[in-house]
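ok so I'm stuck.
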Amino acid sequence: MLAVNQVCCTRLTKFTTGTLKREEMTLISFLCAIKALVQNQSFSRAHQLPFMNMTKTSAGILLYRKEKNILRVFLVHPGGPFFTKKDAGIWSIPKGEIDKGEDPLTAALREFTEETGYTPAGAFIPLSPVTQKGGKTVIAWAAEGNCDAAAIRSNTFMLEWPTRSGRMQEFPEVDRAGWFTVDEAKQKLHPAQAALVDEVLSKLKS
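replied:
not stuck anymore, here's the structure
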């Protein structure tokens, strides 16, 4: 089981650098599933391997506010050691997977609260779903709000780090947040999510 655990954890580095081959992805997915079954546990959303979520659907909230007639949107940066030095194209709206039978908007609000400690309220504007490069669909709503980016409180996940060290460390799902102009946000965001910002801008102008 230790060998399986090492495979599951160490291959994350190869995935994030784009060097993981398709056949390796299939093998790792199988080994990790075996590990979970043997240990009688399931993977949490916080530490699933990225390719295990390719066909899943996430729900999120694009929070916005206006400062002197300038639109700004609220984005979060993923926590954990693999994203520490990454910036452009890595940020996201607060979002997460929809649980079985869960209402998508309820899931979006739950995920926002889990990742920031803040719960949006008021009117929610439905946005067109977007599909990310890996195949995940993101359903989102826009809402006006004023979350304090400097005071967020994120839930956490456990990860063996450094790799093969046998040492489990706790990391936040979100390590920082910020308010950005439309142009700034489109540089920071996962490419597919940039369309959400354009749609919000269009709806607020109409």
